[in-house]
Design goal:
Elements: H1 3-20, E1 22-24, H2 27-45, H3 49-54, H4 58-63, H5 67-77, H6 79-82, E2 87-95, E3 100-108, E4 114-123, E5 129-138
């Protein structure tokens, strides 16, 4: 199984689990998720591999065991996250049991293309959240 396929599999399972048992995001969890996502995006913009990698969940770190591999994967496969134009936070959903949250982020990627990024964050044993995956959805161009 390739690393990309495992990453997508972990992401899909996480999103399905969170969405299946989700409730509207609690304000404190949603604020934490937004802070983490914004901090990671800023780390990408500053080419700060160590900081960007620090927000990855243990499952992601198992797939990408060093920050260089992780950073390269993001640069290759997640250009809108790596080099966003503008971005804004949308809706969030928390798992009913508090184990995770999905945060919607609207991103203008390179070339002006709009994307919706669904960030899956997983609560850690210490109560913090780590990013467990991002699903990118290309926004269709408006019909004229």
């Amino acid at each position: 199984m390739t690393h990309s396929f495992r990453f997508v599999s972990i992401l899909a399972a996480s999103l399905l689990l969170v969405l299946a048992v989700s409730t509207p995001g609690r304000a404190d969890d949603a604020a934490s998720a937004r802070d983490i996502i914004e901090s990671q995006i800023n780390a990408f913009l500053n080419d700060d591999m160590a900081t960007a990698y620090s927000f990855a969940s243990p499952a992601i770190k198992q797939i990408y065991p060093d920050q260089s591999r992780f950073f390269d994967m993001v640069k290759r496969g997640y250009q809108p996250v790596y080099r966003p134009g503008n971005f804004a936070f949308g809706r969030s959903k928390s798992a009913a049991d508090g184990s995770g949250i999905v945060q919607e982020v609207i991103i203008q990627g390179p070339g002006g293309q709009d994307w919706t990024a669904l960030y899956s964050l997983e609560r850690q044993p210490d109560g913090s959240f780590k990013i467990n995956g991002v699903q990118m959805i290309k926004t269709a161009a408006p019909q004229t």
